[in-house]
Design goal:
binds fe (iii) ion; alpha/beta; binds adenosine-5'-triphosphate; binds magnesium ion
């Protein structure tokens, strides 16, 4: 089954062709980062307009790069939420139109479920139960994946998402947008032990809290105006990664996971990748890090999640709309 995936939930316009749920035939991403950079964050109206401008060419390119005739496409999968409503609508309308025109099934995909599938897309040998740590601009969640479509929420942030903390601290330090990569780069020149920033809730269950850390960074810099950005960035990053890795390990032990998988944009973080792999090696479990392009928003993961949903639930009715606050379907713990 060849699935065309479409993603327009935030600031990436993406289309991809995936065969059989894990064979990526083509994967095209057009990012709007430059359009939003001058505003220091995603501007919803600009995002919707940009999706409208580039979605058709992006879909066309995914089909051309895949080297297949569009008559070979068996289903059209598209993110229906969570995300920005105007941005989602562009992709949902296009995907439904294509499904109708081609007389093929439409599959509405949950964006967070798709992030869960990004890792198994690159390593289909991963075995359940897995602990997936989803760390993005909008979410920080520890999820036990018991099987396809079977998720138990083990912990989540009670305030800011991890990526949000990176973005806010980077903005405060005037390191640039988006903040995660900017902190990652700045931290390479700094000392991660220079400043003992707080590790909120570290020994306190599997939930996270990052807003106090952001405030601690601001207070420290105001009190020590001469401190170097590199040391602040490195110490902040260490504090975030320390807590993330500690809790991911604890979660894996708790549920007897075969491994830990990272997902979401923050999974591109160099220190997080290094520390998580080291921890998994120590604990004798698998650590799996999707490539950076699979961690951030893309449509291959949408097509993959869509393939699994089509198998389990069949096509999605065409009257399903965009749902900005769509939740991940969860099992009781
Ligand atoms: P969601 O998927 O929750 O709706 P989103 O689409 O904004 O949110 P992603 O696109 O998955 O999230 O990730 C973007 C986030 O990842 C931003 O907060 C960005 O700063 C962060 N990020 C990207 N690269 C890095 C990095 N190297 N280190 C830390 N954070 C990073
Ligand atoms: Mg994004
Ligand atoms: Fe995302």
């Amino acid at each position: 089954t060849l699935v065309l995936g479409i993603e327009t939930s935030c600031d990436e316009t993406a289309a991809a062709l995936v065969l059989g749920g894990n064979d990526v035939v083509s994967n095209v991403v057009s990012t709007q980062i430059d359009l939003h950079a001058e505003f220091g964050g995603v501007v919803p109206e600009i995002a919707s307009r940009a999706h409208l401008d580039v979605l058709n060419p992006v879909v066309a390119r995914a089909i051309v790069e895949g080297g297949v005739d569009e008559s070979r496409i068996d289903a059209v999968a598209c993110t229906v939420g969570p995300g920005l409503v105007g941005a989602l609508l562009v992709g949902v309308s296009a995907a439904k139109s294509l499904a109708l025109a081609w007389d093929k099934p439409f599959i509405g995909v949950n964006h967070m479920e798709a992030h869960l599938y990004a890792a198994s897309l690159e390593d289909p040998t991963l075995e359940f139960p897995l602990v997936v740590m989803l760390v993005s601009g909008g979410h920080t969640m520890l999820i036990e994946m018991r099987g396809h479509g079977q998720y138990v929420l083990l912990g989540q942030t009670i305030d800011d998402a991890a990526g949000e903390a990176f973005d806010k601290v980077a903005r405060f330090l005037e390191l640039g947008y988006p903040g995660g990569p900017a902190i990652d780069r700045a931290a390479m020149l700094g000392d991660p032990d220079a400043i003992p920033f707080p590790r909120a809730m570290k020994d306190d269950g599997l939930d996270f809290s990052f807003s106090g850390l952001k405030t601690a960074v601001m207070n420290y810099v105001r009190k020590h105006p001469d401190v170097g950005d590199a040391d602040v960035a490195a110490s902040f990053q260490m504090a975030v990664v320390d807590v993330l890795v500690h809790k991911a390990r604890k979660a894996a032990k708790q549920v007897g996971a075969t491994g830990i998988v990272l997902g979401g944009g923050v999974a591109a973080n160099s220190l997080l990748r290094e520390e998580l792999l080291g921890a998994c090696e120590t604990d004798g479990i698998q650590g799996f890090l999707p490539s950076r392009e699979m961690c951030t928003d893309n449509a291959a993961m949408i097509a993959a999640a869509g393939w699994h949903r089509l198998r389990s639930d069949g096509p999605t009715p065409l009257d399903v709309g965009a749902t900005p606050n769509l939740r991940l379907p969860l099992l009781e713990a």
